[in-house]
Amino acid sequence: MRLGGIGFSPPGPGTLPVPAPPPVLNLAFMHPAIPRLLDLQTVDHHIAALRADLESFPKRIREADLKLGGARAALAAAKEAHVKGQKERKKFELDVEQWKERARKYRDQSGAVKTNEAYKALQHEIANAEGEMAKAEDRQLEIMMAGEDVERRVKNAEINLKSAEQSVAIERKDIETQQGAKKKELDAALAERERALAPIPEDLRILYDRIAKRHNGTALALARDGQCRGCGMRVLPHIIQLLVQDTNDEEVYRCESCGLILYSLEPVIAHNLDAAGGNAASVSTT
Ligand SMILES: [Zn+2]
């Protein structure tokens, strides 16, 4: 019997080592439903991976949107500082006006005073009002200068927010495109599952679903070197024998420890050795 894909020739000079071919199912030596169940399991693993991927998308979109939060807060703070600066500026403008007005009043009065003392007192008041006016003017100037900084801050924050919005929009679109592609992939995988399911007898479907549900989506395990590769426990030799009997199309065998449906690839090697007349058939089934 010729088995596709498992022929082996030693690498010649100057050629790269040939990677081990994937495990080949020897269909004559297992329950006829096993390859179909394995197909189903492959599809189911793919579906589970796609669903897990899809679940991550809303979080990724939220995280992208969160990036705008910082830029928005910075702009709000800058605008608030700007409003506060404007208010302070107005207040000191009024102060300047008031002190100016007061100094003018005192000066008007000083023309009409009769005594030297009253004149001196007025001069003192004028000097005081002018001093306060100068202080308010200085403060006003400081605020005006700081206001320019604040205006720059507002402008920069606006620019930053705009560029953040643009990059987040691009990121979102990218995420949504990926999400759409994954959804399509999932639809295709679900359709593939229907096709994989069709040839499997109902009792085996039920068994498969029950086991897969308990084992995180896995229902089958390779039996190799006398061991269940699902749980690592020993598989009794007579079970191994039953697995590889070519007459076996009556029932599937399950690991006594973990309950997974067992299958074996080992007869491929033995059979191929016979078929190839001892021509080193080192087939990796890992
Ligand atoms: Zn097991």
| DSSP strand count | 3
Helix content: 55-70%
- Read across the widest sheet, the strand sequence of neighbours is 2-1-3
Q: Give the termini separation.
A: 22 Å
Largest sheet: 3 strands, mixed
Spans of 5+ residues with little confidence (pLDDT < 50)?
1-15, 268-286
Report the average pLDDT across residues. 84
What small ligands are held by the chains?
zinc ion
**Bulk shape:** rod-shaped
Main CATH class of the largest domain = Mainly Alpha
Helix tally equals 5
* CATH fold field value of the largest domain: Helix Hairpins
Computed over alpha carbons, the radius of gyration is 43 Å
Helix/sheet category = mainly alpha
Structure report:
- The protein has 286 residues and is mainly alpha-helical.
- It has two domains: 56-196, Orthogonal Bundle (Helix Hairpins); 201-285, no CATH class.
- The protein is 66% helix and 3% strand.
- Strands 2-1-3 form a three-stranded mixed beta sheet.
- Strand 1 (220-224) and strand 2 form a beta hairpin.
- The longest helix is centred in the middle third of the chain and has 82 residues, at 116-197.
- The radius of gyration is 43 Å and the shape is rod-shaped.
- The two termini are 22 Å apart.
Supply the key terms.
286 residues, mainly alpha, Helix Hairpins, 3-stranded mixed beta sheet, 3% strand, binds zinc ion
